[in-house]
Design a protein that fits this description.
Helix content: 10-25%
Low-confidence stretches: none
Shape: globular
Strand content: 25-35%
Largest sheet: 4 strands, mixed
Number of helices: 2
């Protein structure tokens, strides 16, 4: 069971939920990057293409755990430029229920482990017990 909470006295969230409460088994998905199944970078220099690949990788990881994006309670975004966030949000919105999105954190980082990578996204999901 997952519940979205809008805390009193906290400014309304724009495109994310402040609090998501879940009860069940935790699924932690490591940060996913824009590598295809062969380990090749997808969309070098293209944040939208990289975001689509990242969310496809997240979908595959969640599926392997028996979860879906409907089970995700938290996403953390690491981007090398906050200007990429609209592309990331577009890819995210293709997978999550935008009326009740997961809690989210976005952080601009100096670099990722490979210079051609523009973003990384990790997820926490909760499955029924």
């Amino acid at each position: 069971m997952i519940t979205h909470i809008a805390p009193e006295g906290v400014a309304p969230a724009a495109g994310y939920s402040h609090v998501v409460l879940g009860e069940g088994r935790l699924v932690a998905v490591s940060g996913q990057i824009a590598l295809d199944e062969n380990g090749d970078v997808v969309g070098e220099g293209d944040p939208a293409a990289q975001a689509r690949q990242v969310f496809e990788n997240l979908r595959r990881c969640l599926d392997a755990a028996g979860a879906t994006f409907a089970d995700v309670v938290k996403l953390t975004f690491f981007v090398t430029d906050v200007a990429f966030l609209p592309a990331v949000r577009e890819a995210r919105d293709a997978h999550v229920e935008t009326a009740n999105p997961p809690a989210s954190t976005a952080v601009q980082v100096a670099a990722l482990f490979r210079p051609e990578l523009l973003l990384e996204v990790e997820a926490l999901a909760v499955l029924p017990s």
